[in-house]
């Protein structure tokens, strides 16, 4: 099924949902209506037991997203800017805490909120022409959708400071060297690569995938002792599941497991 709401295309491809930012004439910049479409799509995914992985990408070949819509921004009152920032931050946090893994397929420029959207995803795969940048300090603001917090957690404080304080763009190759993306592929193979990763995830036991994502994310924010406790609790959730038994039976019977998310 495919639903287009102007700024966002939502496609359900079996167990994988693809969200495509769709304002190529504005470099897929995130205006308020597009944010609200994204918010609705993410809220639906949060309760969707059928979707096992999500891909986020941008329409066209130039941009994943040029971030906040600066033309719209110019028309906003300070109060509206505050509301926009709160909304985008909350949506990206909702993406980060989706139960399903989210893959950013970065098809071009990802600037400001575009890079921050990538940071909220679990896995980032970039096309060779992709570039990343938190340009906000060059515009008299700072990253406000998680960038100052998520970037140092992913690439370390020093590199994050270099990117944020210089507002400089980095290439896909540099992003790969810094661990910001897992891999760089030719543009024409980007979606196929992202789909292949999503399909591999979709074959695994969905409850296990959810618990693993939760344990990694929750555990990364606490000391090791507490993190190991989180891992123990996450494992405990899986012990009574039918899928755990199915995994063992499939191994014994030398067949592929059929997981039902129970
Ligand atoms: N908001 C609104 N419109 C944007 C946009 C943004 N963030 N980024 C690009 N666009 C628009 C341009 O205004 C232009 O439309 P126009 O021809 O009607 O004016 C169109 O997208 C193409 O962009 P253009 O600037 O002509 O292409 P370029 O290749 O010369 O530069 C960028 C592309 C993305 C590098 C440049 O547009 C840019 O720096 N944009 C701002 C990105 C940014 O800093 N985002 C963070 C915001 S916090």
SSE inventory with pairings:
Layout: E1 2-4, E2 8-13, E3 16-21, H1 32-46, E4 53-58, E5 63-65, H2 70-74, H3 78-96, E6 102-106, E7 109-111, H4 113-120, E8 123-127, E9 131-133, H5 147-155, H6 157-166, E10 170-171, H7 172-177, E11 183-185, H8 190-203, H9 206-220, H10 224-238, H11 242-252
Parallel strand pairs: 3-4, 4-6, 5-7, 6-8, 7-9, 8-11
Antiparallel strand pairs: 1-2, 2-3, 9-10
Bound molecules: coenzyme A (COA).
Residues 26-27, 29, 66-71, 109, 111-112, 135-136, 139 line the site of coenzyme A (COA).
Describe the fold and architecture.
- This protein is an alpha/beta fold and 262 residues long.
- It folds into 2 domains: 201 residues, 2-enoyl-CoA Hydratase, Chain A, domain 1, CATH 3.90.226; 49 residues, Lyase 2-enoyl-coa Hydratase, Chain  A, domain 2 (Orthogonal Bundle), CATH 1.10.12.
- Helix content is 48%, strand content 17%.
- The chain contains 11 helices and 11 strands.
- It has a 7-stranded mixed β-sheet, with helices on both faces. Strands 5-7-9-10 form a 4-stranded mixed β-sheet.
- Helix 3 packs parallel to helix 4, helix 4 packs across helix 5 and helix 5 packs across helix 6.
- The radius of gyration is 19 Å and the shape is globular.
- It starts with a strand and ends in a 10-residue tail after the last helix.
- The model has no long low-confidence stretch (mean pLDDT 97).
- The site of coenzyme A (COA) has 15 residues, from helix 2 and strand 7.
């Amino acid at each position: 099924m495919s639903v287009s709401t102007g700024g966002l295309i939502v496609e359900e491809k079996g167990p994988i949902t693809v969200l495509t930012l769709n304002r190529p004439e504005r470099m897929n910049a995130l205006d308020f209506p597009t944010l609200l479409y994204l918010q609705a799509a993410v809220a639906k995914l949060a309760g969707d037991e059928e979707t096992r992985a999500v891909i986020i990408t941008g329409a066209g070949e130039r941009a994943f997203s040029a971030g906040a819509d600066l033309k719209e921004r110019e028309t906003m009152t300070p109060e509206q800017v505050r509301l926009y920032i709160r909304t985008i931050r909350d949506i990206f946090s909702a993406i980060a805490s989706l139960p399903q893994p989210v893959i950013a397929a970065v098809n071009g420029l990802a600037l400001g909120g575009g890079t921050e959207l990538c940071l909220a995803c679990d896995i980032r795969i970039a096309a060779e022409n992709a570039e990343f940048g938190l340009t906000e300090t060059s515009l008299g603001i700072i990253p406000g959708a998680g960038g100052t917090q998520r970037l140092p957690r992913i690439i370390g404080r020093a590199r994050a400071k270099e990117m944020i304080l210089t507002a400089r763009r980095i290439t896909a190759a540099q992003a790969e060297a810094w661990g910001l993306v897992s891999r760089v592929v030719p543009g024409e193979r980007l979606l196929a690569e992202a789909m292949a990763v999503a399909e591999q995830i979709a074959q695994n036991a969905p409850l296990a995938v959810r618990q693993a994502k939760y344990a990694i994310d929750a555990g990364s924010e606490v000391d090791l002792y507490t993190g190991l406790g989180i891992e123990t609790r996450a494992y405990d959730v899986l012990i009574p599941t039918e899928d755990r038994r199915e995994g063992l039976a499939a191994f014994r019977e030398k067949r592929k497991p059929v997981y039902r998310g129970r």
